[in-house]
Specification:
The chain has 686 residues and is α/β, with parallel strands linked by helices. It has 18 helices and 27 strands. It binds alpha-D-galactopyranose (GLA) and zinc ion.
Amino acid sequence: MTRCAFPKILYGGDYNPEQFPKEIWDEDMRLFRLAGIDTATINVFSWSLNQPDEETYCFDWLDELMNKLHDSGMRACLGTGTAAHPAWMARKYPDVLTVTYDGKKRKYGRRHNSCPNSPTFRRYAGQMASKLAERYKDHPALLLWHVNNEIGIRCYCDNCERAFREWLKQRYGTLEQLNQAWYTRFWGHTFYDWEEIVLPSALSEGLQNSNSDQTAFQGITLDYYRFNSDSWLECYLIEYRAIKEIIPDAVVTTNFQGNGTYKPLDYFKWAPHLDIVALDIYPENHTPESYMAFRYDLMRGLKDGAPFLLMEQSPSVINWKAVNPLKRPGVMRLRSYQAVARGAESVMFFQLRRSLGAYEKFHGAVIDHAGHEHTRVFRECAELGQELQRLGSGLLGARTESRVGLLFDWENWWAVELGGGPSVHLKYLDQMQKYYDAFYELRIPVDFIHEGTELGRYDLVVAPLLYMAKPGLARKLEQFVQGGGTFVTTFFSGIADEHDRVVPGGYPGELRRLLGIWVEEIDALFPDRRNRIVVKQPFGLLDGSYECRLACEIVHPEGAETIAVFGEDFYRGSPALTRHRYGQGEAWYAATEPDRRFLGQWLQALCEAKGIRPLCAAPPGVEVAERAKDGAIYTFVLNHSDAAQKIHIGDDIRQELLSGGTVSGEIELAPKGVMILKHNRALAQA
Ligand code: GLA
Ligand code: ZN
């Protein structure tokens, strides 16, 4: 794994000069310099240009571009360009074309259009990565590598089907094991030959529609999802290895999509193979700030707290929603610092110059169709660019410290939503976001963790909707709690094993001993229905009555205390919140989806009990986040609101890095204002 050492927070983004006459390139370099732009992501969609036919490769334009970047003092994030195959390839080798969930064989078109198990795609993508590495290995402009682009469509073609069978043979060894795992005695599905197995598409097991991901056989679909994620990982690794073979210390990454919560790819499984995690983020104007904060924290969690790259965001509009309003003045800067506050070491855009044709011609860009610097968007970008230059390298490598771990798991996410559960409205990300938001509002930093994370460094581990408890996890959580940790989980947890087979003997399965409860039944509530939670044993501010929704479970304590009960329906008076003292620690269970006020007060009390303190008090709309490095603490204060806001930062004098001045006591933030306060740890602890 290569360690990344950048000279400063990278600033720039996707640059597609191959769409423009060469005369414009020099003008672009002038504008980049003006805007403080130092990094260009290039060659992302240039496969057909670089390889006009099977035997011919020509990189003249790219040589020229690399040289020009270098002459202008810029660095390249070099794309391998394999996210859109050339038309000739599709014509000559139809195996590169995908088959959709509905079973349609696609024709040449769009992008992100290759089958991950196409031998042609794999061969030529690998060759392209080698050619590029060979050509640019000593080029001074080369900074890092960007493999493919937003990888990860699902394909249902015959090659994928054959590869799936091989993958299953590796996983299960025998058909007996597979039949067991998939529970195939149900609906007479016993398989006697590997060739009988087909992909779970709409033509076979799939029941997917626009609001649900359901399938008739969860075990099969779950394995297909794992297989598809692995197939793409292999494709990525073909290019990764091709590059590393020629440039062993190359920094290689790919841009994660779906704002970092892209369902088809298990990014926890991918992250170890990236030298640095990178993500694209495209919130709407009205997207809550905590939505982005969640995704940035998740990206940081993927590699155990390591910083990541913000590879793409729009400097202004996006163009692919039904309605695409402008990003308001100041918002691009504010949201850029939000990413940096949570671990980003770059601020990059899609795109640097706006296309003149095709699908993205109205997508925001640093340089607009007007072609000059006298635009609002350019001015805002240039101001930020200069600010980032002044910030220098101080923040690079700074880490976030947290005593709360939030367990996130792609396979669990898939399983929860593959169907047959209490309600199609039960969505994994919604539940995760609700718990995340409570900590966000409390200004308590969290780390996203996975089942392999060493839990000893956390005081509080929260695992909302831990439906699938993988082998060994319950034991690990028991040890954590025995040792004094506090564990929190929710309704619909511990139900299934890693094949999505129900654990017999009562819910929550293997978590039953730790939680000290037995869940007898699960009631689903229609979206407009509510129940109430009534607190019996006040805990911190948690007292009185609250609303709850979505699902209510009928819980029998088996050693746990009942802290709160349901207020309505035939299970009125039965436990809604329980606490089980176990070893030196406690395991808590919320048998429903509580309202925001309940979550805030409950989690606050849990943090207080553990001595976990908020970063600093701030009014609603003001986000606070911290990074630390070399004895210095950097506190980011971000005013997302449209009004000026005051906060009290204590009496110590701190440096404010953006203005270059010092501050203490009460400070005022302008609407959309940002401050980065630096102070040393010794002072902070005094
Ligand atoms: C994605 C892609 C880019 C571009 C942007 C537009 O993130 O990676 O190539 O299409 O979307 O928002
Ligand atoms: Zn395929």
